[in-house]
Design goal:
- The complex is a heterodimer of chains A (249) and B (257).
- Chain A is of the alpha/beta class.
- Chain A has helices at residues 45-53, 76-80, 98-108, 113-126, 143-155, 173-190, 201-207, 225-230, 234-243; strands at residues 2-11, 19-29, 34-39, 60-65, 68-69, 83-86, 161-165, 193-197, 210-215, 218-224.
- Chain A has a 6-stranded mixed sheet.
- In chain A, α6 (173-190) packs parallel to α7 (201-207).
- Chain B is mainly α and 257 residues long.
- Chain B is built from 9 helices and no strands.
- In chain B, α4 crosses α7 (180-190) and α4 packs antiparallel against α9.
- The longest helix of chain B has 42 residues, at 82-123.
- The chains are: A alpha/beta (249), B mainly alpha (257).
- The interface between A and B is medium-sized, with 21 and 13 residues.
- The structure holds adenosine-5'-triphosphate and magnesium ion.
Chain lengths: 249, 257
Amino acid sequence: MITFNAVTKIFSPGTPYALSVLQGVDLHVEKGTSCVILGHSGVGKSVLLKVLLGLISLTSGDIIVGGLSVRDRTHRNAYRHHFGMLFQGGALFDSMTILGNIVFSLVERGISRPKATEIAHEKLAAVKLEERVCSLFPSELSGGMQKRAALARAIALEPKILLFDEPTTGLDPVTGANITYLLRDTIRTLGATAITITHDLAATRVLADRVCLLDAKKIAWQGTRQELDVTDNPLIVSFLKAARGELDS
Amino acid sequence: MKFIRLLGRTVLDVFTRIGEFSIFAFKGITGCVTLPVYGKSLLQQCLSVGFYALPVVGLTAVFAGFVLALQSYSGFAGLSGENTVSAVVVVAITRELGPVLAGLMVAGRTSAAMAAEIGSMRVSEQIDALETLGVDPFKFLVAPRLIAGVCMMPLLVLVADIIGVFGGFFVGVTRLSFSPGVYIDQFVKHTATFDVVAGLVKAAFFGLSIALCGCYYGFTSVKGARGVGEAATYAVVSASIGILILNYLITTLFFGL
Ligand SMILES: Nc1ncnc2c1ncn2[C@@H]1O[C@H](COP(=O)(O)OP(=O)(O)OP(=O)(O)O)[C@@H](O)[C@H]1O
Ligand SMILES: [Mg+2]
C-alpha cells in the first residue's frame, strides 16, 4: 500500500544551513496493517509523515501509495485523498467551530452540506465528544478534546490510510489510553492502513502490527510487536529501558 | 575575504527572497482569478480590511485635514484666504495624503493582522491540514485577502478624502473664519476627477501591497511566538515601504513628472 524507496530529505541543500533529516529511508507498509514508528525527539518522524503527504518535497527517492507517486503533481489531489491525518497539535482550523471543521473538510470533497452535517455529528459521537462541543471553537477545548475532534475530522472521509502524529503526547495517562483504544477501534472499523508516530510504548503495544525505529536518518530496526520484547538491538533495548524509567545517567 | 563572503551571501539571500515573493504573488493572483471562490471568507476579509478600518482611517484623515488647513494658512504668512487654503487641502488630500495615510494606517493594522493570523496557522500546521484535505491555501487564504485589499482600499481612500477635506473645511470655518460658501465654491472648483481617480488607483495598488506582504510573511513564518511576531513586523515594514515606493512610481506615471 505504501512504499518508501530510498527517501532522502535535506532542508536547504547546497547552502551553509543544509540539514539532512532523512537519508535513504526504505519502508513498506502492507495494506491493512498498522505500523508504529518510534524515534527520539527531533529525529525526523514528523518530517517523514509530511514527506509522505507531499507537504514537504523530497530531495531524492520516491514514495508510492496505491500506485500513485508523491512526485506526480498532476494527481496530487487523488494521491492526498488516500489519507486522513491527525497532526501533532491537532491543527483544527481555529476560525471555525468544531462542527464547522468537519463539515468544511467534507464539503470540500463534494459532499452536500446536510449530508456533511449528518456525518459530522456521527463522527463526533464516534470519538465520544458530546453534542454541546459542536458549536465551540477549538480554543475553547482541552487538549484531549481537541485531539478527539481532530481525529473525528481525520476519519470523517473514511480514508484508506490513517496517519497519527503523536496522538497521546501531552495527555494524562488515562486520557492517553482512551485515545489509544479509540485509534485502535477506528483503524479496525475502517479496515485502514495506519502509520502512528509515538513515544508511548503502551500505545505501541496496542496499535502496532509492525514497529519501526527511526534513528540516524534511517529505519534502524523493524519487526513485529512481539519481536520488540525479544530483540537485542541496543537502540530498542535502551528505548524500552528508558520507557520503564530505568534511565542510564 | 570574510567580508566578501558575507556580502555575497546577503545578496543571494535578498534575490532568493525576491524570487520567492514573486512566485508567491503569482500564485496568489492566480488564485484570485480561478475557481472555487470562498465567498464567506471573502466577505469576512472585506469587513476586516474595509469596514473595521474606517474609524482609524477616518480619524487620521480628519486630523490631516485640520493641520493641512492650518499649515497652508500660516505657511503663506496669513496672506492666503479661502482660495489657496481650500485648493491646497483638496489637492494634497486627494492626490497624496488620502491614499498614503490611509495606506500606511491599513498597513499597520491589516498587514500585521494577516501575517499573525496566517503565521499562526502555518505554525500550528493548519495550512498543512488544509493541503492534506486538498484545499489550496492560496485560494482559501491568500486570494480572499488580496481581493479584499484591492477592492476595499479605494473605498477607504474615498472616505478618507471626503473626511479629510471636511477636516480642512471645519478648521477653515471655525478657526480661520473663512466664509463657508466661498470655501465650498473654491473646493468644488479645485476638485479634479483625475486627482481623485489617480488616488483611487494608488489605493488599489496599496491594497495589493498590504495583502501580499501580510500573506507572504505569514506563510513563511517560522515556528514559535517569536516567529509569528517577526512575521507581523516584517509585513508592516515591507508593506509600508512598498506603499511609499508604489506611490512615487504611480505619481510619476499619472502626473508625468
Ligand atoms: N520546515 C522545516 N525546515 C527546516 N527544518 C525542519 C523543518 N521541519 C523540520 N525540520 C527539522 O527537521 C528535524 C526533524 O524534525 P521533526 O519535526 O520531524 O522531529 P520529530 O521526530 O517529529 O520530533 P518530535 O518527536 O519532537 O515531534 C528537526 O531538526 C527540525 O529542526
Ligand atoms: Mg514530531
